[in-house]
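note to self — DONT lose this again. spent like an hour looking for the file last time. sequence + predicted structure for the chain T wanted, 196 res
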Amino acid sequence: MSKQYIIINLNKAESAETLIERSKERVRWILFGLLVTVLLGANVRVWMISLGYNGIIEQKETEIGRLKGEIDQLQSQGKNLSKYDILSFADLEQDRFLWAQNLEKMGSLTPGDIAITGLRYKRNKLVLKGIALTFEDRKDFEIIDEYVQTLRNNEEFSGDFNRIKYVGHSKVSIRGQDIIRFEIEASIKKNNKKLF
């Protein structure tokens, strides 16, 4: 007689707990794979950026080397200044007379009721010609003398001149308005003869 066996497959039906555990494991592996992919992508991007920076650094180092070479070449071709050249330049700088600076200062010192009508330079003297309004309560000479004193008392302006003096004035009437025409003379210091 033949033996009959009953075959029971115990693995056929899995429990619900096993299925849940298996799906959780699958999710974990998917998340791990995504994280590894993101990290790998970030590392590749950083590596590419660093390659770009390395190229820029090499380009700048090449440019710096080229510029240093040009500087060395220019220095070897350049003219060495002698002591005489340096002293001559210092004398020029010290002795030069800055007209623009002095004229600007003179303009700021000139009051509103006085106008400069002419400037002349002759024999190391600056001759100023101007006009001023007259006032009933002041003498003509006082108006001009006050302006001359203002110029003398300003060290920035008077520092370049030996003497600032009143030369003369005259009273004239133009269109019914009395005005004073005056002349002032400023002698330039001897060390300031250069007109630079």
